[in-house]
């Protein structure tokens, strides 16, 4: 087929410290690769959602954080990390979370992602993937301006402008407004994949789930 039957608009609501968001994005991209042959494509915009908006700048140990937030024991936390590591590996992502990993405040990361989305959709996606790698593979500090600007530069964004954004209040209101909008629409967990502004696919689903859902949505559209 020479021309797409349908280009779907997808809002991928997520946080860069959300491991299931890595799994979900990988499943979504795998599904879209398969659907190309059927003439179904998508424009993806990454939307902000802070899992821990009150997180202190120094972050928190992952085991302590999961225990405090969800009541998980260290053993349960380790089992969960192993399961996520396997699921991430299935979509080609090197997940290296350990008992020593930390959770960080992600507001500044979301500000850079908002900027990247204004510059170029492909660069926004690349920055999202780079920030996933920075956190989950490299174990770097997501509140460190140097770490964030290096990630921006890595995907072809202007590092000096990224530094200027982080040193200012640019996009603070835009990110706050976007988060409030998605929460007002009932999004209270991520990943949340919103298709055509009205169809919701929740969680880190396997590629087959995304493939079937997107095929059905494209048919209805």
Keywords:
Glutaredoxin; 14% strand; 221 residues; two-stranded antiparallel sheet; 53% helix; alpha+beta; 4-stranded mixed β-sheet; single chain
What would you say this structure looks like, in words?
A hairpin with a 3-residue loop joins strand 5 and strand 6. The mean pLDDT is 96. Helix 1 packs across helix 9, helix 4 runs antiparallel to helix 5 and helix 5 crosses helix 6. The chain has a four-stranded mixed beta sheet with strand order 2-1-5-6. It has one domain: Glutaredoxin (3-Layer(aba) Sandwich). It is built from nine helices and six strands. By secondary structure, it is of the alpha+beta class.
Flag low-confidence runs: none
Give me the CATH fold name: Glutaredoxin
Shape: globular
Structural class, from secondary structure content? alpha+beta
Helix content: 40-55%
SSE map:
Layout: E1 6-14, H1 19-35, E2 40-48, E3 60-61, H2 62-70, H3 74-90, E4 102-103, H4 107-119, H5 121-137, H6 145-154, H7 159-166, H8 172-184, E5 192-195, E6 199-202, H9 207-220
Parallel strand pairs: 1-2
Antiparallel strand pairs: 1-5, 3-4, 5-6
Helix pairs in contact: 1-3, 1-9, 4-5, 5-6, 6-7
In short, what is this structure?
This protein has 221 residues and is α+β, with helices and mostly antiparallel strands. It has a single domain (6-53, 106-220), classed as Glutaredoxin (3-Layer(aba) Sandwich), CATH 3.40.30. Helices cover 53% and strands 14% of the residues.
């Amino acid at each position: 087929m020479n021309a797409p039957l349908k280009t779907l608009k997808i809002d991928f609501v997520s946080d860069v410290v959300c491991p299931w968001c890595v799994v979900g994005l990988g499943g979504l991209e795998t599904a879209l690769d398969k659907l190309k042959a059927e003439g179904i494509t998508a424009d993806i915009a990454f939307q902000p959602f802070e899992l821990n908006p009150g997180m202190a700048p120094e972050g928190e140990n992952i085991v302590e954080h999961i225990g405090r937030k969800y009541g998980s024991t260290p053993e349960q936390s380790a089992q969960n990390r192993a399961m996520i590591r396997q699921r991430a590996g299935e979509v080609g992502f090197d997940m290296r979370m350990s008992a020593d990993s930390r959770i960080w405040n992600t507001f500044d990361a979301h500000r850079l992602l908002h900027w990247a989305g204004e510059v170029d959709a492909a660069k926004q996606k690349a920055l999202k993937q780079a920030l996933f790698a920075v956190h989950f593979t490299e174990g770097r500090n997501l509140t460190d301006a140097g770490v964030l600007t290096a990630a921006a530069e890595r995907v072809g964004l202007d590092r000096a402008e990224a530094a200027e954004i982080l040193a200012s209040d640019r996009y603070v209101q835009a990110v706050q407004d976007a988060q409030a909008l998605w929460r007002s629409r009932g999004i209270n967990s991520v990943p949340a994949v919103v298709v055509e502004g009205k169809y919701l696919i929740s969680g880190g689903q396997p590629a087959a789930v995304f493939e079937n859902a997107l095929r059905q949505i494209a048919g209805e559209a």
